[in-house]
Amino acid sequence: MAASEPILEIENLVKHFPGPGGFLQRSSVLVRAVDGVSFKVQEGTTFALVGESGCGKTTVAKNVLLLERPTSGSIRFQGKEVQRFSRRELREYKRAVQAVFQDPYSSLNPRMRVMEIIGEPLQVHEGLGGRALRMRVGELLENVGLNPVTGGFFPHQFSGGQRQRIAIARALALQPRLIVLDEPVSGLDVSIRAQILNLLVELQQNFGLSYLLISHDLAIVEHMSHQVGVMYVGKLVELAQKDEMYGNTRHPYTQALLSSVPQPDPDIPMGNAISGEVASPIAPPPGCRFHPRCPLYQETAQCREQEPEWREVVSQHWAACHKI
Amino acid sequence: MDRASGKADSTLLRVEGLKTYFFQRSGVLKAVDGVSFTVKAGEVVGLVGESGSGKSMTCLSLMRLVPRPAARIVEGEVWFDDRNLLELDESEMREYRGRRMAMIMQDPQTSLNPVFMIGDQVAEPVKLHLKERGRQAIERVLETLYAVRIPSPETRLKQYPHQFSGGMRQRVVAAMGLSTSPELLIADEPTTSLDVTIQAQFLSLIRELQREHRTSVIWVTHDLGIVAQMCDRVNVMYAGRIVESSAVRRIYKDPQHPYTQALLDSVPVIGNRRPRLYQIDGQPPDLRSIPSGCPFWPRCPSAMDICKEQYPPQTATGGDDFVHCWLAEQ
Amino acid sequence: MAGTGTDLSLEPTALTWPGRVGAALSALRRAPLVTSTVLAVLLCSAIFAPIVAPHTPTQIDVGNSFSPPVWHEDGSWSNLLGTDKLGRDVLSRLIYGARVSLTLSLLIILIGGGSGTFLGILSGYLGKTADAILQRFVELILALPTILVALVFVFTFGTSFTSVMFVLSPFLAARFIRIIRGETLTVRERDYVAIAQVIGSPTHRILWRHILPNVFNTVIVLATLEVGHLILLESSLSFLGVGVPPPNPAWGLMVSDGREFITSAYWITLFPGLAILITVLSLNLFGDWLRDTLDPRRRQL
Fold first, then answer.
1. Class of residue C70 by CB neighbours under 10 A (exposed 0-12, middle 13-18, buried 19+)
2. Given a contact as 3+ CB pairs under 8 Å, which chains touch A?
3. CA-CA distance, B165 to B160, in Å (whole number)?
4. Contact criterion met (CB below 8 Å) for A15 and A75
5. Is 0.95 surpassed by the pTM of this model?
6. What is the DSSP letter of A150?
7. Contact C297 A156 (CB under 8 A)
8. Where are the alpha helices (DSSP H) in B106-191?
């Protein structure tokens, strides 16, 4: 693993939204989508954020992509604070950080040809046009395993997997350093997923890309990532190198997630499902947010009232739990 | 077989040569193209395939809920007990649909009507099919809501769908299906929109209820993990046909069809690290122009000349298992 | 086959009557020739009215009033479609009326619809204060009774073609803003818009390349629907005497003029009515065709 400099550092990121308000009145509740999250993405590696819906993983991604402004906390890119970027630095950031989203149908404008879709970043940043643009788009299409002649087609002429390749080609156009992958294969068929996952791994090796992978699928995360952070209701509950995370799982929530995955082997039965529902980020439980569902919880006031400390339980392995 | 029972072998549902086509301006789309399989009493049968493999359309055909006039069942027989469902008239069919066979759809958001209370919606099939009224119907509804582990069902009865979480809503849908104690339950990817831990709860709930009532289940999914955990028998579908049918254990240990093999190899599995996943190249076929011969040959690693010309016949591979592949034929 | 009910035959079902009409309409939709010819003829006769029209539309000839169309026994070749109660030639009035009705409604669509689309997109995309202010403005306009405002406006500024245009355009714009804003809100949530923001595309580029083409369907549909509405509105205004000033002919005005004689002299109302029907229908079909042609997903069907 090429663990060198961190390319992206998130420190104590908080994002609160106003909750659903009533008619003509300001809402009094707060949705605590992200509530103090810190991690680092090392250059050339994949950092995965895992969790169930509503845990805030996508909100983290949106903050990194500047689609939303954090309530507080800092995002540093190559050592510099994103909030304090100059106009020029911001422009550079928008070249260096790209994204691939989940839904290959919603991520391509149906009214544009593939050529224009992949060419858009090149036009915006490099003013490329005409032959030079066509050449470059052709190259990018080849990079993702599509025939360059398809540049003249419209998105609806492609299947889901091919569309995702086009989305990846667009993300590669400006030779980025970091790509945010938000559930890049969950919209795809099983037999197509492997194609896209393999392509992403290949591109990472060829271009030295860093990935911030957002996923709910623990098997895909294990396959793709170098470091893993597990989120529950706006907070990280565990963070470690992949081998450590899967080999030496410490947090009861991560353990529950792992045992909930139905294994494609009838001889490995599913573990006991944990009870209850994912807590609401509007009114998260006091103390440890996981305690109402935690199999280790034994009516102790500590779990119920005191927020567990984020600490290094083993070297390079952090978790937030009173019971570890 | 997991279940020890004398009656375990009696066939509840037998599908023969089912074909459902869509008639479009651009041509005939063969969504289901000659599907045959059986479901025994108390058995959980999986229909596995990718989108466009025809698994959902097969289920809709069994219920005779094919979207008309776009699509039509053009051929085949569906024997439920001793009646061919395709020959019944609509009023007879209603006796089966909802009463003896029920369906859970993929999306709990749209399966429930947002303007009616949960209790009334679950009571609907009870009133319609069991002709129960008033106190009796409410009792039955409470019973089913309790059975699907909905906490404090008495208060939940008077609530609306938006007051339920996704997992709870899917339980309500299951309760609606199960309230008439049907003999066959068709579950069309009921957990795709659920979170992992909630999916695990739902799967074990259905498994438990199924064992208790010895309901037969057709479980439609693309997730090989769910199949391994839920099913007794698996039918793998590709391009509107069943390409392999086998007892669940066998399909994971000794898959016969190259497509099944490839599917198993292409999925990342926790604890089984590979630098690179096996990848099935190409795309699933366009159902308007399915390749001649075996539809999988353009993507098949071991395709032979004969595969391009003729669809492989059914080859028995022991027990009730069969496969459609020229490799097995040799 | 043993188990084949009526369900299972392969032949396509025979077309029923409504089915046939539908098929004919969809054929028209795919062939813009017919509808565009109709529209072209209407526009040409509007533009070249002085040359095409057999009579002066305002020429009164009381001696020749209520003369029926040519195919009636006592009809004459000099008044092909008959005359009205003042003996004015219906055909000539129809042709001059096209000038007023068509150009008026098309101009209003262009001005009101165009600005409405622009503001609707801005309102939906930018949100926040701009959106709030615009929406209050829209609510204000939609709450006003169109006819009453038109009356006041016209009494202040005098009846003329331009005052009708100025008073109706904001009403149309308000309807466009309302609906296009809603469309923009959905399109704005699409991932390709988010990606364009991630890339750093300037706002005007996002509006022009990503939002506008994807709300254009709605603009077209709305525009074609509103033409009919506008022609009818013009007729109400004309009826109240604040529309196009008489004796200038306008279709709506002609319909309302002939209303009292509908049993004795049907032609006075029928022909302008037909003209409105054909125009609105052609515009709708043409709009459908335009929408399909502009949508790459439907283009090769």
1. middle
2. B, C
3. 11
4. no
5. no
6. G
7. yes
8. 108-111, 118-129, 134-147, 153-156, 166-178
Tell whether B271 lies on the interface with C, counting CB pairs under 8 A: no
Q: Given the DSSP bridges, would you call strands A178-182 and A46-50 parallel, antiparallel or unpaired? A: unpaired
Which residues, numbered 248 to 267 in chain A, qualify as contacts with chain B under a Cβ-Cβ cut-off of 8 Å? 256-267
* A138 belongs to a structural domain: yes
What does the radius of gyration of chain C's CA atoms come to, in whole angstroms? 24
Which of C1, C6, C7 would best serve as a mutation to test chain B binding (most B beta carbons within 10 A)?
Answer: C7
Whether A152 maps to a domain, the answer reads yes
Among positive and negative, which fits the CA dihedral C225, C226, C228, C233?
positive
**Mean pLDDT within A167-190:** 94
Domains recognised in chain B with CATH numbers: 10-90+223-287+316-330 (3.40.50.300)
Mutation site for B-interface testing, chosen from A190, A202, A290 by largest number of B Cβ within 10 Å: A190
Kindly give, in sequence order, each residue whose CB lies less than 8 Å from that of residue A46, ignoring residues fewer than 6 positions away.
A204, A210, A211, A212, A213, A224, A225, A226, A227
Say whether pLDDT at C55 is over 70.
yes
Nearest CA in chain B to A279: B165
Which range in A88-102, B279-293, C33-47 is most confidently predicted, on average pLDDT? A88-102
| ipTM surpasses cut 0.90 | no
Least Cα separation, residue A70 to chain B (angstroms): 26
Number of H helices, E strands in chain B: 13, 12
Which of B28, B68, B77, B93 best probes binding to C when mutated, by most C CB atoms within 10 angstroms?
B77
Over 60: is that where the pLDDT of A157 sits? yes
- What residues of A are in contact with residue C214 (Cβ under 8 Å)? 109-111
pLDDT average, residue stretch C131-156: 87
The H or E element that residue A230 is part of is: strand A227-232
What residues of A are in contact with residue B273 (Cβ under 8 Å)? 222-223
Taking phi over 0 as left and psi of -120 to 50 as alpha, with beta for the rest, A316 belongs to left
- Between A and B, how many CB-CB pairs are < 8 A? 134
Q: Rounding to the nearest 10 degrees, give the CA dihedral for residues B218, B223, B225, B226.
A: -30
Do C194 and A99 make contact, defined as CB atoms within 8 angstroms?
Answer: yes
Give the lowest-confidence range in A180-184, C30-34, C184-188. C30-34
Tell me the nearest-neighbour CA distance from A262 into chain B, angstroms: 5
| Residue A110: domain span | 6-18+31-317
Task: Band the pLDDT of C240: cuts 50, 70, 90.
Answer: confident
Whether A108 is covered by a domain: the verdict is yes
Give the number of domains in chain A: 1
Q: Which residue of A lies nearest to B205 if distances are taken between CA atoms? A: A273
Determine, yes or no, domain membership for A233. Answer: yes
Q: With CA atoms as reference, report the closest residue to C163 among C152, C154, C155, C173.
A: C154
